[in-house]
UniProtKB/TrEMBL annotation:
Residues 233-253 have a biased composition (Pro residues). InterPro entries: Collagen-bd_Cna-like_B-typ_dom, Ig-like_fold. Residues 152-231 form the CNA-B domain. Signal peptide: none annotated. Residues 127-148, 227-262 are annotated as: Disordered. CDD domains: CollagenBindB. One of its GO terms (biological process) is carbohydrate metabolic process. It comes from the Bacteria. SUPFAM superfamilies: Cna protein B-type domain. It comes from Bifidobacterium biavatii DSM 23969. This is Adhesin.
Length: 290
């Protein structure tokens, strides 16, 4: 990983590597690792656009921060801004960089997803995470008034109707990785909420506390506003139940035997006498329900 602000290396930044998913058996998608299985995200991201990858990285980074998930490896960038992770197997990885507070520069945290092997088949990949850095402010001679910030969250629904949608969702505001506040989003507040007068100097993220059944979640964070998108994935249609046959078959009244019937039966008996007895077994086929 090459961590830079424009062309200037950022040394001393703390980086973390998470193995979030393995390739599935068909090698056309991903199966989450055990500590990521509980999160309602769409893992069918192979071949999708970079924007979806960016939002999935932000979504996972929020849950990692809140739930204090264990990383596979940790490194600090060297004097050239490099951090190297060796001996990795095939799969989907997330690389996060902590907020950086240097002598002359401050940077916000970042998260980047990477697939191994790459599209070219290489297991050696160089990442250059997106950075949001700014020059460090020189303290004024007199103490300034305490700065305040605000954070806004908006819920977006996709591929659903109001009949499928839950009546409310709870979102959590994280301050430096800890749950700081919660808010309810619903139709009455247009599925949006804003926290104001928050103390500055902290890192804030917003996550959805619990995702409704049959929905997946993606988080898009831009400066002071976070958009949380829930996409409805309808369950597969249950198989139709077969009506079982009646336990007692309907009675059949045998036709009266006439002279013609007797003659025909006798002829059939004579025809079968030289060939032996043929028995036809009819097997009822059952169709298994999956």
């Amino acid at each position: 990983m090459n961590y830079q602000d424009d062309d200037a290396p950022v040394p001393g930044a703390k980086t973390h590597l998470y193995h979030v998913a393995d390739w599935n058996d068909a090698n056309n998608g991903f199966t989450p690792m055990s500590q990521f299985k509980e999160y309602s995200v769409d893992w069918n991201v192979y071949g999708t656009d970079s924007e979806t990858f960016r939002q999935l990285a932000e979504t996972l980074a929020g849950y990692i921060s809140r739930d204090n998930l264990k990383s596979q490896a940790d490194h600090i960038t060297d004097s050239t801004g490099l951090a190297v992770f060796n001996g990795l197997s095939r799969g989907l990885y997330l690389v996060t960089v902590d907020a950086y507070d240097g002598d002359s520069l401050t940077c916000k945290p970042s998260a980047t997803l990477v697939v191994l092997p790459s599209d070219s088949g290489s297991m050696d990949v160089t990442l250059q995470p997106k950075t949001e850095c700014s020059p460090r402010e020189t303290p004024p001679p007199t103490p300034p008034t305490e700065k305040k910030v605000k954070k806004k969250v908006t819920k977006v629904w996709k591929n659903d109707t109001e009949a499928n949608r839950p009546s409310k969702v709870i979102v959590q505001l994280l301050q430096d990785g800890k749950v700081y506040k919660e808010a309810e989003l619903n139709a009455d507040n247009d599925w949006t909420y804003e926290w104001s007068d928050l103390p500055a100097g902290h890192e804030y993220r917003i996550v959805e506390k619990t995702v409704a059944e049959h929905y997946t979640v993606l988080v898009d964070r831009e400066t002071d506003e976070t958009i949380i998108t829930n996409t409805y994935n309808p369950p597969p249609n249950p198989p139709k139940k077969k009506t079982p046959p009646p336990s007692t078959p309907p009675s059949r009244t045998p036709p009266a035997e006439t002279g013609s019937n007797v003659t025909t039966a006798a002829a059939c008996a004579i025809g079968l006498s030289g060939a032996g007895l043929a028995v036809l077994r009819v097997r009822r086929k059952h169709k298994s329900n999956n």
